[in-house]
Design a protein that fits this description.
The complex is a heterodimer of chains A (597) and B (288).
Chain A (H helix, E strand, L loop, with lengths): L3 H5 L15 E3 L1 E9 L4 H14 L3 E7 L8 E9 L10 E6 L2 H8 L2 E10 L10 E4 L1 H9 L5 H12 L4 H12 L6 H18 L7 E3 L8 E3 L1 H11 L2 E6 L6 H10 L6 E4 L3 H14 L2 E6 L1 H17 L3 E7 L16 H5 L9 E3 L4 H18 L2 E7 H5 L1 E4 L17 H5 L28 E3 L13 H12 L1 H4 L8 E3 L6 E5 L4 H13 L4 E5 L2 E3 L3 H9 L3 E6 L5 H9 L7 E5 L8 H5 L7
Parallel strand pairs in A: 1-8, 2-5, 5-6, 6-7, 10-11, 10-12, 12-13, 13-15, 14-15, 19-20, 19-22, 22-23
Antiparallel strand pairs in A: 2-4, 3-4, 3-16, 9-16, 14-21, 18-20
Chain B lengths: L17 H14 L7 E5 L14 E4 L5 H11 L4 E7 H7 L1 H10 L4 E6 L2 E2 L5 E2 L17 H7 L5 E6 L3 H16 L5 E6 L9 H7 E3 L11 H13 L3 E7 L27 H13 L3
Parallel strand pairs in B: 1-2, 1-3, 3-4, 4-8, 7-8, 9-10
Antiparallel strand pairs in B: 5-6, 7-10
Helix pairs in contact in B: 1-6, 3-4, 5-8
């Protein structure tokens, strides 16, 4: 097995084009494709991703786009590796550039053995390790449209990497056969044009070779898709949302998935309407969810407080992006945590679950629906842009792990056997049995006002105390049922790393590098970020000398929560922060750990 | 019989127009023989929004301005329920205006009753969106809900009632709920409901109201005609009441009535894992 550490070890200087030498074998390869929006950079990354998957490799596709439909710089990255991965590689091995800006922006990330392949139709560069082809002109003549330059670039890449020609072609057939018309034929021609050009340029053919892997029978998916699928199998049947990057795909997938199961998906006029429609559906007895990002979350805050006191189970997926305000809508951050932990006016219980990869997204969405109904509280699923939108190789979602817990939901039969039905009945676990409207014989009286057990408005101080405790104690009583932390690494390691969400990918990779450098670490992935699982984190911290808390924000929001709940560990905690809109790369985490050089 | 939440005594001032609405809703539900457990009253915030506490029905007390969104959620989740949202003019035309306009467009078969008293009564008499120029503290001209409603091209039922005319109100609310039950779409009824404490308008409204059906050319299937009649009546200082829009099944607007509730709805859909497993497997095996 190769390790991540091996790939970042120094590599001897390569000679320039024209000098024959054996191909450089890569077991972890990264290709960045840059150009103007509309140049087809995403097509190239998609084609490469398909090829690497055919070779049994794990792939991770990320994109860097501006918040506009067309134009402006856009780039896409493909990483492929024999080992599982959920992060961007530290360096780019091959840069594909459709304009000079892509070269200027990408050059800094190029590894010492890297190579630039560019479309020389409108510009030339003087880099030593590069090859330019006028792709746009080359395809424009025979195919009538310069847009096929992206497929020609894929053809040239296939030569550069020594791809198997039949499988290279297979990818094009797979991608374009359903397009109809002459799309397939033209793309196959463009592929050949690109291949021939690259073969005719000395020093390009077989410059690299990419290993094969055994990651077969896997799927390619995103966190947002996994949330949508988890919602369906978790019995979710009502979704209302308002478009917002990077959360919109949850709604779009559900518009496809939910109607065949009798579910309803509605796009609302704003986030206020979205969450209140979800509250109405929950009251009616449906498992209901909405998804949003920072600014939308602010509007939903009013509704979350309402659901909290009315004890209506709802799920809100927050796909975090760079804030505050409109911030950087297409960029990555984890800066909503403090807001969520203190979310809303007044005090009410809430659970915040933070998945790390698509399988975790799928499973925790089911869990969120169960916990919401079991405890009759709002549950927040905390994602981040990279987890929501980056595409990654993932094991198939496992239905055998899915179970439904409807808590104290009453059937009509059970309801008729009751002497009395108090919708806010005081019970030992704070959860009252619930019969939705439409249940013969009883009425569901629900309110956001403080209320007595019957659901009638009450300002009685003794009742207020009882009702506050009923609700708030759920956060303590539910503790053992909330998704537990995961720990990775040797149990005797004295250095710890703590994180949540998509940082799991680069942290796991950093752990391998650190181990290689003689610094064994234990990584604690926090999956229930609120209420803080002190019962898990406190014993964990007692066993280590220091802990690095890795997160994407300025103020160290997770670190603050840990310090607030476990002040006695204060001196051990060190923050590793990044808030430039890009995700961590493993070496950036490694360099923050003391003793790792 | 299982004992559950019982109605409580209204908190309204004696003589409040809202009593008329309470009585009319009760009579309409009885006339249409709607089982009380299938009837959901969604209350807004303000005096009027407490109406759900005073009836033997399911009640959800919504956030200020958000009752329509919650009511739409209830109905979409369980189309077999009869859903009535009821609130005040501040709730509907100020903080809830976005949802108000979109409710016509969404055209989900619920009834929305706005009890308009032209003031914020519960917070002690501040001007509301419908307050007249001259009302203490008001510097803006009043908002006209009926004209706005008529301007939105959707096949909705639109009417205005007056608490001083309980018989007329009962007839209209009954018709509106029947319209919903037939799945014909959204129904909006504004009730002129005087606030006896901060804006006692019984006398002046009794003089000003005029039944639109008595106006020459009255045709509630024709939005254009009704807009003109209501605008002219308003401009001449009258307050039109009655049915302002009663669309044909496929309206003259050419807009088809979108029926909600063809299926069992989300609440009645089977969510059990076992029975859905083959379909779930199929859904997941589609991923590559």
């Amino acid at each position: 097995m190769s390790t991540a550490a091996a790939q970042i070890a120094p590599i001897p200087e390569q000679s320039g084009p024209g000098v024959p030498r054996p191909p450089l074998e890569l077991s972890d390869v990264s290709v960045m494709i840059g150009g103007q929006g509309g140049d087809g950079t995403l097509t190239v990354s998609d084609l490469l991703g398909r090829y690497f998957r055919k070779r049994g490799l794990y792939v991770y596709l990320s994109r860097n786009v501006l918040s506009r439909i067309r134009g402006g710089h856009a780039d896409a990255s493909v990483r492929a590796s024999r080992d599982p991965l959920h992060a961007v590689k530290s360096h780019v091995d091959v840069l594909v550039a459709f304009d000079n800006e892509a070269v200027e922006l990408g050059k800094a990330e190029l590894s010492p053995h890297g190579f630039i392949l560019y479309d020389s139709t409108t510009f030339h560069i003087a880099e030593p390790h590069s090859a330019g082809f006028p792709f746009a002109t080359m395809v424009g003549g025979p195919l009538g449209q310069p847009i096929f330059k992206n497929t020609a670039a894929y053809g040239a890449l296939s030569v550069l990497f020594g791809f198997d020609p039949a499988q290279t072609r297979g990818v094009i057939e797979e991608r374009f056969k359903r397009r109809g018309g002459d799309a397939l034929e033209k793309n196959l021609k463009a592929l050949e044009i690109g291949r021939k050009a690259a073969l005719s340029m000395p020093g390009v053919e077989n410059r690299y070779s990419v290993v094969s892997g055994d990651a077969h029978n896997m799927i390619l998916t995103t966190g947002n898709q996994a949330v949508a699928l988890g919602f369906v199998v978790g019995g979710g049947r009502f979704f209302a949302g308002y478009p917002i990057t990077p959360a919109t795909e949850v709604m779009e997938y559900l518009q496809r998935y939910l109607p065949p199961f009798g579910g309803v998906v509605r796009q609302a006029e704003d986030e206020l309407a979205a969450i209140n429609m979800v509250i109405g559906a929950s009251y009616a007895g449906a498992r209901a969810m909405t998804s949003t990002s920072g600014p939308g979350l602010s509007l939903m805050t009013e509704g979350l407080s309402h659901a909290g006191t009315a004890e209506l189970p709802i799920v809100v997926a927050d796909c975090q992006r760079v804030g505050p305000s409109t911030g950087q809508p297409t960029r990555h951050e984890q800066s909503d945590l403090s807001h969520l932990a203190n979310l809303g006016h007044g005090e009410y219980p809430r659970f915040i679950l933070a998945p790390s990869d698509p399988v975790d997204c799928f499973e925790l969405t089911v869990e969120a629906l169960n916990l919401a109904e079991r405890w009759r509280v709002p549950v927040i699923l905390l994602l981040d842009q990279a987890l929501s939108q980056n595409t990654t190789t993932s094991p198939r979602f496992d239905l055998s792990k899915v179970h439904l817990d409807r808590g104290k939901r009453l059937t009509p039969e059970a309801t008729t056997k009751l002497q009395q039905y108090k919708i806010y009945e005081l019970t030992s676990d704070g959860v009252s049995p619930y019969a939705p409207p439409g249940t013969p014989g009883v009425w569901a009286e629900v309110t956001g006002n403080e209320h007595d057990e019957w659901g009638h408005v009450s300002v009685n101080p003794a009742n207020r105390l009882k009702m506050m405790r009923k609700r708030m104690e759920k956060m303590v009583l539910a503790r053992s049922e909330l998704p537990p932390c995961r720990v990775f690494g040797p149990p005797d390691a004295k250095v710890a790393i703590i994180g949540f969400g998509s940082t799991s990918g680069p942290i796991l990779e950093a752990q391998r590098i650190l181990e290689h450098r003689g610094v064994p670490t234990r990584y604690l992935q926090v999956r229930t970020v609120f209420p803080v699982p002190v019962h898990e984190i406190d014993p964990f911290l007692k066993e280590v000398d220091s802990a690095y808390i890795v997160e994407h924000n300025y103020t160290g929001q997770l670190a603050r929560l840990l310090r607030e709940t476990m002040p006695w560990h204060h001196a051990k905690l060190h923050s590793v922060l990044k808030y430039d809109g890009h995700t961590f790369r493993a070496p950036q985490i490694v360099s923050e750990v003391k003793g790792a050089k | 019989m299982v004992q559950s939440a019982k109605p409580v005594q209204p908190i309204w001032c004696p003589g409040c127009g809202d009593f008329g609405v309470l009585a009319a809703v009760k009579r309409a539900a009885a006339e249409l023989k709607i089982p009380t457990h299938d009837f959901v009253l969604v209350g807004g915030i303000g005096c009027s929004g407490s109406i759900h506490n005073f009836l033997e029905v399911n009640g959800i007390h919504a956030l200020h301005g958000r009752l329509l969104a919650q009511a739409v959620g209830v109905k979409l989740a369980n189309p077999s329920l009869t859903v009535v949202a009821a609130g005040g003019d501040g709730d509907g035309y100020a903080i809830g205006m976005g949802h108000f306009i979109h409710a016509f467009k969404k055209n989900v078969s619920i009834l929305y009753i706005v009890m308009n008293n032209e003031t914020y009564g519960l917070t002690k008499g501040q001007p509301s969106p419908t307050s007249q120029l001259g009302f203490e503290g008001n510097v803006e001209p009043p908002f006209h809900s009926i004209l706005t409603a008529l301007s939105i091209p959707a096949p909705n039922f639109i009417a205005r009632t007056f608490s001083g005319d309980p018989k007329g109100m009962t007839a209209i609310l009954t018709e509106a709920i029947r319209f919903n039950k037939e799945g014909r779409g959204f129904a909006f009824v504004e009730d002129l409901s005087p606030c006896v404490t901060y804006n006692d308008t019984y006398k002046i409204w009794r003089e000003k109201v005029i039944d639109v059906a008595t106006l020459p050319g009255y045709d509630p299937t024709d939005r254009k005609v009704m807009f003109r009649l209501c605008l002219e009546a308003t401009e001449s200082g009258r307050i039109p009441i009655g049915v302002m829009h009663r669309p044909e099944v496929v309206g003259r607007d050419g807009l088809e009535v979108k029926l909600v509730g063809d299926g069992p709805g989300p609440v009645r859909s089977d969510i059990e894992l076992e029975s859905n497993l083959p379909a779930y497997h199929k859904l997941l095996s589609g991923l590559a």
